[in-house]
Amino acid sequence: MTSELRNVVQRLAAESANGEGLEAYAEQTTETEVEAFEGRVERLTSASSSGVGVRVVRDGRLGYAYTADLSDEGLRECLAEARANLDVSSEDPGNVLPGAEAYEALEGIFDSRQVEVSAERKVSLALDLEARTQAADPRVTKVEAARYGDVIGQVAIASSNGISGAYSLTQAYCYAVALAGRDGESQMAYAVDSGRCLDDLRIDPVAAEAAERAVRLLGASKPKTRTVPVLFDRQVAPSLIGVLLSGLSAEEVQKGRSLFADKLGERVGAPGLRLVDDGRLLDGPGAAPFDGEGVPTRRNVLIDNGVLSGFLHNTATAARGGATSTGNASRGSFKTTPAVSAHNVFFQPGDKDQAALLAQAGEGLLVQEVSGVHSGANPITGDFSVGVSGLWFRGGELAEPVREATVAAHLLDILTGIVAVGSDLRFTTGSIGGSSLLIGQMTVAGS
Amino acid sequence: MLEDVIVRKVLGAALATGGEWAEVYAEDRLSHNIRLEDRRVEELVTGRDRGAGVRVVRGTSSAYAYTNRLDEESLLEAARVAAAALREPASAEVRDLRRRTPEVRHPVAVDPAGIERTTLAEVVRRADDAARSHDPSVAQVTAAYGDVRQQVYIANSEGFSTLEDRVRTRLIVQVVAVRDGVVQTGFDGPGRSMGFELLDQFPPEEVAGRAAARAVAMLASKPAPAGEMPVVVGSGNGGVLFHESSGHGMEADLVAKEASVYNGKQGRKIGVSNFNGVDDATVAGGWGSFAFDDEGTPAQRTVLFDGGVCTDYLSDLIRARQLSIKASGNGRRQSYADVPIPRMTNTYILPGDDDPGEIIRQTPRGLYAKSLGGGQVNPVTGEFVFGVVEGYLLENGQVTTPVRGANLVGDGPSVIAAVDALGSDFEVKEGTCGKEGQGVPVGNGAPTLRIARMTVGGTGGAA
């Protein structure tokens, strides 16, 4: 399947001139998305696209260009642009290409059944998901979105250093957004499932979860300001982890934008707390045999028993910092130079489910939705202040719903404040797995 | 970009299964992006992206297929894939494609494609130097310049085609200032639908100076108070608030799905009598401007609030027909890989008569939210949260202590109802608006304004 892409990148890599490192990274994706609304297919999208990015390094300088035009002329122009761009870039010890290293294939990321799934089945799944979400509770007034999507992707890379690799992957997901209403009030919530194939998706739990989460917010009011234990549920935990994670990238550390810059080897969380990124974990959507510049992926422990134990590196940050790449070079697409990001990151699950954690905390706030994370959380300064909605709990039981509240604290205090991680770890569509996170005390501000 | 004779064949194939109308959207995009960080020109990236999509529409259902091969066979295949979503006998024909003439233009004085690479490197270096010389506390500077030339061709089976050349340029400077262990950031990022002349209007030194001043001012900040209080919002930033908390709720897809707090509010008086809001894609050189939207509808100015009364919604072709309203020219998409949906363009709260300084003097206690970061809104309830990136306490009608970590929390209609002063000044902030995973350039503008009471989230205890 990947032979055409392999051909493109190998032809480009062979063009490298003396003293020049040259890497070509190509992608091809075929995607389908079906959206149901009121019993009909509201939107069906089907796509195929491909492109290649060329990275040239010479004398510590970098040049980059990309094109979606894979004709001989398109590739020639792209290479010429990359070389010309190199001339104005500054020297940087990070501008080097990785050496070739054998990688182990990861067969589990490609499910051949997905290639054969008919358009009819994709449409039926979206329609069924909508109908079941609507039927899940009489207080569901509308299903705002019911969507099925899939991707069949291929990646190929080749470089003048002898790197040569390719893989294919499949992904399928579905999600529902339920609206619940009563007496003119309306609340919204979503649920999602994902897998390597349409056959992996379970729509009844998605329908039930979306409906339940919307319905239970009905009657929510703005709370009085209090300081209580706060439990972030597994759907919102990834937003919180995402803010912390940016500071664990060596790129952010080297550029003075990380809270964790001088904390390697120091205690940053309670004993037993462990944060892991595993590029070969098949449960996570970010699994791949090699990273965005051809370095084999592996399992990296970032926080070990509460102590900060490592940062994520690509080849550039490793070269700058005298370290070794952790296999975390990421490509947003063929349009971008390699950045640093996690594959499948998660807190090592504990042994209590959400109900047991609520019982442990006794009284507090269960947060089921956060808003304003991209503006209210600053991974550089550590300021964290977001809007939340959810439910109070008392005696370990869920009680009245809450909206228009804010929680604010310093990110490092939130991390050290994690008293328990739930056993309910789940990956959906993003690179961060979510499990319940119980924070000892936080100020919940309302009126 | 594509030949009419091929396009007519493609549209014909798209309508073979009962589509009421069909459309071809093709685009060719050439971009240059240069970024300086840590005193180094990290990268200059040239990108060429192109592709085309075929859309078949019947009622509110649509099927879309795209490809980045622009030959006849690939386009016909995309048309067949999209048409396969319908199973009816053909009912519509392809009419003669009449080329629409643009009513507004956004002229380019200096074509960015002709600028030397070394000049681009100078732009970001000048910004870096200016930010660093602004104050010794400036520890890190990121400066990025980007330009894009996007050629867009659209053909619709109902008998029209458009061709537009859009050029956008933007300079972004982000500054990190550090003093006594306190770290603060500042940002400025003007962008326009124009050429390299952007930098005559916004010299890199001035952009960098503003970003640095914001970061430095916040070094002396204390944690923001929490609770309800009057909030004066700095010029321009009220536009960001308006965009997020009301503009999205006035997008016709959310209205049609009854998923908007503005559903059924047309004709109702919500704000004070001098509260006027518009969405205007015709603004000359505006960051969110164009000649035609991404469905070929000419750019328009749509009144959202007139004298405090909620007026028109923002629609694309599908929603305009569904709701029997005028297509307002708000069908936008990120690229050929996306279907158009109702989006804002340049969304403004129009200025009032109050002197901005007087608004502050007439506010004995409260928060001056001089600059807001991004925000997020739940369009169903209208609830939003905004980070205040540059904020100060208001005490005895004076701007006093800078405060950090403040958050504005509320809902769109209540905030509009609570606006009780509108300044005579006006400013626009540029940004990228995200919806359904698609980012499009938008301008948000407003005068200095006061919200009589709103919830402020902060870590500094009750106000």
Descriptive account of the structure:
The complex is a heterodimer of chains A (447) and B (463). With 447 residues, chain A is of the alpha+beta class. Chain A has helices spanning 3-13, 72-86, 112-115, 119-135, 203-215, 237-246, 250-254, 315-321, 354-361, 373-376, 411-416, and strands at 21-37, 40-58, 61-67, 140-159, 164-182, 185-195, 226-232, 275-278, 299-304, 307-308, 329-330, 339-340, 345-347, 364-371, 383-394, 397-410, 418-421, 437-445. Chain A has two domains: 3-215, 2-Layer Sandwich (PmbA/TldD fold), CATH 3.30.2290.10; 220-447, no CATH class. The model of chain A has no long low-confidence stretch (mean pLDDT 95). With 463 residues, chain B is of the alpha+beta class. Chain B has two domains: 112-154 and 163-220, PmbA/TldD superfamily (PmbA/TldD fold); 223-457, no CATH class. Chain B is 21% helix and 41% strand. In chain B, the strands form four sheets. In chain B, strands 1, 2, 3, 4, 5, 6, 7 and 8 form an eight-stranded mixed sheet that branches. A six-stranded mixed sheet of chain B has the order 13-12-11-16-23-22, covered by helices on one side. A five-stranded mixed beta barrel of chain B has the order 10-17-18-20-24. Chain B is globular and about 70 Å long. At the A-B interface, β2, β3, α2, β6 and α10 of A face β2, β3, α3, β7 and β17 of B. β3 of chain A pairs parallel with β2 (40-58) of chain B, so a sheet runs across the interface.
What's the gist of this structure?
Chain A is α+β, with helices and mostly antiparallel strands and 447 residues long.
Q: SSE order of chain A, as H and E? A: HEEEHHHEEEHEHHEEEHEEEHEHEEHEE
End-to-end distance of chain A, in Å? Answer: 59 Å
User: In terms of structural class, how would the helical and strand content of chain B be classed?
Assistant: alpha+beta
- Tell me the helix content of chain A: 10-25%
Rg estimate of chain B, integer Å: 24 Å
Low-confidence spans of chain A: none
Shape of chain A: globular
How are the strands ordered across the major sheet of chain A? 3-2-1-4-5-6
Proportion of residues in extended strands of chain B? 35-45%
**Overall number of domains of chain B:** 2
> Which percent range fits the helix content of chain B?
10-25%
The global form of chain B is globular
Total count of helical runs of at least 4 residues of chain B: 10
What is the oligomeric state here? heterodimer
